[in-house]
Amino acid sequence: MSIPMIRIARPEDVPPALEAAWNSHDMQSLGALFRDDATFVNRFGHYVRGAEEIVKLHAPIHATIYSDSTLKNELIDVVPISDDAAVMHFWSRLAVGAAHPAGPHAVDTLILAVLTRQASQWRIMALENVTLTNPRTGEAVLRAEQGS
Hints:
The longest helix has 13 residues. The protein has one domain: Nuclear Transport Factor 2, Chain: A (Roll). Strands 2-1-6-5-4-3 form a 6-stranded mixed beta sheet. It is globular. A hairpin with a 2-residue loop joins β5 and β6. The protein is 20% helix and 41% strand. The chain contains 3 helices and 6 strands. The protein is an alpha+beta fold and 148 residues long. InterPro entries: DUF4440, NTF2-like_dom_sf, Steroid_delta5-4_isomerase. It holds the Pfam family DUF4440.
């Protein structure tokens, strides 16, 4: 499978690019955000390695339970490691619709991504997605809206 290249000129472009790929349910665009050898840990702790495996993990759920989902990302910070590497954190709210077995609901996660630049293009080298839950009860927690 050949993953198309998406131009990401700076690390801050990653959260909106991820949001756009998710919301269009375009798994090839999603895969193009990652280096070929990237690692990914989803919110359930499932680990995969490689952009193709990341696409294979997401394609079935976007064809079914997440087919009517939307994602909204909000950058927290970018911490440069070098001129060609950075660590990024961003909030992500997943809103699922009627296609999900549990019905419409929202899930908030905190994403940690390690980005690298090669040939002036930034890509995700590693991404980990953590669901916000109450550690005592396991209940999902939605973070407070900014400004409310």
